[in-house]
Model the fold of this input.
Amino acid sequence: MKNYFLSALLVLLAMPFVWGQPVGNNQPTEKLEEIASSNLERYDTWNALDYFKQVRERKPNDVKANYDVAYTYFLLRDYSSAEKEFQQLIELDKENFMPMAGWYYAQSLKLAGKYSDCIPAFESFKSKYNGEDADRMKTLADVEIAGAKWAQTMTSPKEELIIKPLDKTVNSPLMENYAYPIGRNKLVFSALRGDSIIVLEDAEEEAKFARIFVAEKAEDGEKWEKVEPFSASTLAAEGFHVVNPTFNQDMSRFFFSKAQLVGNLLENSKIYGAGYDGTNVTEPTALDFNDGEYSCKNPAVGMLDGQEVLFFASNMPGGKGGFDIWYAEINADGTTRTPLNLEAVNTVGDESHPFFDERDNRLYFASNGHPGMGGIDLFQTERNEAGAWSAVENMGPGFNTSVDEFGFIVTREGRDDCFGYLISNREGSSGAVQSQTSTDDIFSILMPERCDVDLIVKVTDDKTGEEVVGATVKIVDKETGEVVAEQTNTENNKFVFPLEQGKEYEVVASKEGWETGSSTSADTRRPALENRFGSVSGPMEWEETTTLKEAGLMVQTFDRNSKAPLNGVTVMVYDGDKLVDEKTMTDGNQFSFILDNNKEYKIKARLEGYIGDFKTVKATEAKEMHKLYLAPPPLFVNVLFDFNKSNIRTGAADTLDRIAEVMTDYPEMVVEVRGFTDAIGSDSYNDRLSKRRSKAAIDYLVEKGIAAERLIAKGFGEAEPVAPNENEDGSDNPEGRQLNRRVEFKIIEGNVGAVETEKKN
Done:
């Protein structure tokens, strides 16, 4: 199969332009065939078609004559006529002398958007084709079938798109094949241009070959004002097409392709590099990886991991199919290193026209080897931080049609990545002569949903209006409540947040020592954006202000043991003995109180199950962050006694020593000492015995330095046993009675924050 995917020139340079009146009705048939073939070779495809038709009139049942007519229609991209011609040819060619006719018939159907009809046509081709490249062609047929089935399910674009052909100042009657935007008002592109449609061989020298041009818009930014040759004296190359202009990101280097077209095949295509000073291109040099044995084309510069690389398409050895995408690191002097095959995107078909956007690490390219809607479709893949590429994705309807799309590129100026260009022969092409899909034009493409939205936030004092430095600003998704972005600025008061379109956000500021005064919202839904900006056609940004109130007192609460933030705490603020404020945080550990900063306050923290904390805050400390530490209460082990005894045993003394140590560490702690007995003896005797046991424990603790007023004696006799005194059969249970002969310790003050004795610092 001849490669109809010719990148920069495609097949158009094999089929132009318009015709003089063919002559030769009196010529022998062999002479007519010779003239037709000669016209095709000299790119006079229109006259070639007329001569081929004359041959067929004389040989209506000749398979070759019918094939020549059908194939020339296909080259002219008149798919409706090609479909009819190939269908007739297949019915005529019973012996399958022209096996590729089935391929072009199926392609014509697909390119005309007849997806349901092309599927059986490709299946039929697979069943009949037995050429040397049968495996490859059948694989490609499977790809086309998959693409046609997928296209039938795609009813609308995946995103909003506004696509328009450029005006006729840029899109000429012939063809345009690549565009590189410099902002939105300047375009460097390659094209085959002419004021009239002529036989290429008879044209002026400068009109015979594709060249690079530059176009600029008028001051109003609407119409394209003028088109001029780009560095014509430097880039002129007699006998060669000069196409595919591209620059590196800082516009210091310029790359392009220089190619010959032999017959209808692209040959001898090489990539050149040159310097660029903003006006002129230096003398170009062929890059090292070029070779006369294969073609290289479609250069595009991108950044991978901070390294400038050149992406390009080539059919050099080591690839997967016809043309693959390759990339090579660019050295400081503009030379390149050994190219590497981008295996993740390449197929047995053709891939070309890469463009890498560093802003989202996304590679765009054209291919006929992945399932698509047309002959050539646009695809994309994303590179992650580890250097792996995501699954290749068809960009879908709008970007793609049933015909050819390639050369997709977006503006690289700053954040403007929602506007770009693509090349297509879709309906609307200004140069359409033979059919609605005969020539390639440049189309602009606006993708409103991709336009960046930046919110600039400033924080001010609610009272004075002065800027507050050192605040933290959070962006909260109103629908989910999720904090989607957060910034803290210690040196300035400008916060910039990239927002997603189609959402409502709450903007909240905070700062230690301050309380939220007023929050604000940001609405990025389409009606709100259009109301604010008029239209969504480029990067957008606006400013919002949120305020803070200076707080009089800030408190944070923590677990004393783990030092972790402690939630659920209640903090009370006293002015002397008067409670002036109280707050409980069920989620969070930071409290703020609006108070007079010229007073001394006492703050207390309490949480059930914890020993509280407190401190006195002097007036000079009011604006500081004050931290309170609450402690889990200690676990006190019961003290056990011998039968009918109240003296402290040796083991019990060790336990009481540990209790004394804990109470020394927590001077605010007040403990109830609770005595108990077993069930032997009278109730009155056991009551007295339990009190003696409680008093014995208290006396021991007092001897260890614990103040008697912090120890409260209680006797409960044989009440509240912790174990059975008897077994189920009524017999004595010595182990249970031993556990009941005990003294327990219950913290009654200090664990709920009701603290009256201030701890020492």
About this structure: The radius of gyration is 43 Å. The mean pLDDT is 87. The chain is about 20% helix and 30% strand. The CA atoms of residues 63 and 93 lie 6 Å apart.
